[in-house]
Amino acid sequence: MPEEVIKLKNSWACGYVFTLGPANLVWVRANKGMIGCGAFDVCALEKFEYAAARVKPPVGEESVKSVDDLLCGEVKETNKYAELSGVKVGMKGKEALDLLS
């Protein structure tokens, strides 16, 4: 699985796309947490005290297919650890990652 490196405000992050039949599992891991496509359960990650947010596809797209889609998409759910870092529903994926960098 190839790794995509993303420059963030305070550090670098690693993005991944894993093909699961007709869908892709897409996520980006930063120093203080991660954002992912709709397949991720951010509440389950909260149990491990791990900051996480789920991102919906960019306008006009049916699903998150790439790391770029994740960066341009909008946060639709977050857990309390991501919220403590400033991540909020409605912000762009890249903005959330900058806060988790």
Class computed from helices, strands and strand pairing: alpha+beta
Number of strands: 6
What CATH architecture label applies?
A: 2-Layer Sandwich
What is the CATH superfamily classification? Hypothetical protein YunC
> Spans of 5+ residues with little confidence (pLDDT < 50)?
none
The helix tally amounts to 4
Strand order of the largest sheet: 1-2-3-4-5-6
Shape verdict: globular
Annotated CATH topology: Hypothetical protein Ta1206 fold
The structural domain count equals 1
Level-1 CATH class name:
Alpha Beta
**Largest sheet data:** 6 strands, mixed
Give the SSE string.
EEEEHEHEHH
- C-alpha end-to-end distance: 23 Å
What is the strand content?
35-45%
Radius of gyration: 12 Å
Share of helical residues: 10-25%
Q: For the residues shown, what is the average pLDDT?
A: 96
List the helices and strands and how they pair.
Blueprint (H helix, E strand, L loop, with lengths): L2 E5 L4 E9 L2 E8 L2 E4 L5 H5 L5 E5 L10 H6 L1 E5 L1 H5 L8 H7 L2
Parallel strand pairs: 4-5
Antiparallel strand pairs: 1-2, 2-3, 3-4, 5-6
Question: Descriptors for this entry?
Answer:
alpha+beta; 101 residues; 36% strand; 6 strands; 4 helices; 23% helix; six-stranded mixed beta sheet; Hypothetical protein Ta1206 fold
